[in-house]
Specification:
CATH topology: Ferritin
CATH architecture: Up-down Bundle
Bound molecules: fe (ii) ion
Number of domains: 1
Number of helices: 5
CATH superfamily: Ferritin, core subunit, four-helix bundle
Largest sheet: none
Radius of gyration: 17 Å
Structural class: mainly alpha
CATH class: Mainly Alpha
Low-confidence stretches: none
Order of helices and strands: HHHHH
Helix content: over 70%
Distance between the termini: 41 Å
Length: 157
């Protein structure tokens, strides 16, 4: 089946649509997690930073959802990919790994995508995720000290 002119113009194909849905699920999950983590944050400064990070994820979510609608004419219903850990330090660690992996995922999409506006959208989102990853690394460092955690074998990726 040939893609419609509309579909081709916007850079849509099935592989990309699958990646886009995965990205929307990831952003939806991040927004849900970070709302929970804001409540668990040990300081107001961390709470404020988590809120700013969540605002970035909401922006990505809205951009990707709108793109999906533009390509398919359908609103995608997002799914939570994983529950947020109840332990704050574990949640921070999981968020750090997820932000790193999402950076790679978005850069890969940007590399193969032919439509310039979509390339730019994913490259910019990748830069945001990389910035978030560094914040989570910092939070992890601080919280480990606060909790006197010297080393935990579970922290191997
Ligand atoms: Fe994001
Ligand atoms: Fe992020």
């Amino acid at each position: 089946m040939y893609p419609s002119r509309h579909d081709a113009q916007l850079g849509g194909n099935q592989a990309f649509l699958n990646d886009l849905k995965k990205a929307i699920d990831g952003e939806y999950t991040a927004v849900t997690w970070y709302k929970t983590m804001e409540k668990m944050a040990p300081t107001n400064k961390q709470k404020e930073k988590l809120k700013l990070i969540r605002k970035d994820e909401e922006k990505h979510y809205n951009q990707f959802s709108y793109l999906h609608y533009s390509l398919t004419g359908q609103q995608y219903q997002p799914k939570l990919t994983r529950e947020c850990p109840s332990n704050h330090l574990e949640a921070i660690r999981a968020a750090f790994v997820d932000e790193q992996e999402t950076t790679d995922f978005y850069l890969n999409i940007s590399d193969y995508q032919m439509q310039q506006s979509i390339k730019d959208m994913f490259r910019r989102a990748a830069a945001d995720e990389q910035n978030h990853a560094v914040w989570f690394l910092h939070f992890h460092f601080i919280s480990s000290f606060r909790n006197n955690v010297v080393f935990n074998d579970n922290w191997h990726i």
